[in-house]
Amino acid sequence: MPHAPFLPVLRELAAAYQAFEAFSAAHIRSLDLTPAQFDIIATLGNTAGMPLKELGEKTLITKGTLTGVVDRLTDKNLVRRVASPSDGRSQIVQLTPQGEAMFAAVFPAHLAYLAQAFSELSAQDLVSMEQTLSRLRAAFMAARAGKEP
Predict the structure, then answer these.
(1) What kind and span of H or E run contains 137?
(2) pLDDT tens digits, 61-76
(3) DSSP-assigned states of every residue in 105-120
């Protein structure tokens, strides 16, 4: 099989994501949260809440897993489900006051923790990476739009 010139990019992208996840998850677990729980709290922070479907779209959590994570956060009194005022069939997931306090404490702490890893990179490095990743995302989106399975 001929060597595809993009394979090294795929390997590095996967390795960078795995390194990020390992670094990030270690800190999140020290906050007594799972990465999925943190993802939901961070996504709901500074919002009035959102339907489960939208929450699933804005996080990297699959629908089946999302329900269980929301249930566990409900048990911890960090989120609540309320009836949607516009659609009686759906529910809105919101942070409780305790969840809002958790968000206010853990989100800035986690950003400060992540800043350690980014501190070795220049402002230009960060801009360049953002632009490159944006182009890569756009290429995948365009390819998907043209070739739906």
Answers:
(1) helix 123-146
(2) 888 899 999 999 999 9
(3) HHHHHHHHHHHHHHTT
Which domains occur in the chain, in start order? 10-113 (1.10.10.10)
Encoded amino acid at 86, one letter: S
Closest to 45 in 3D by CA, of 78, 16, 71: 78
pLDDT digits (tens, 9 = 90+) for 90-129: 889 999 999 999 999 999 999 999 999 999 999 999 999 9
Residue 32 gets the label, from left (phi > 0), alpha (psi -120 to 50) or beta, of left
Contacts of 124 (CB under 8 A, 6+ apart): none
Cβ neighbours, 10 Å, residue 50: 17
- Residue 67 amino acid letter: T
Interhelix angle 97-118/7-30, nearest 10 degrees: 130
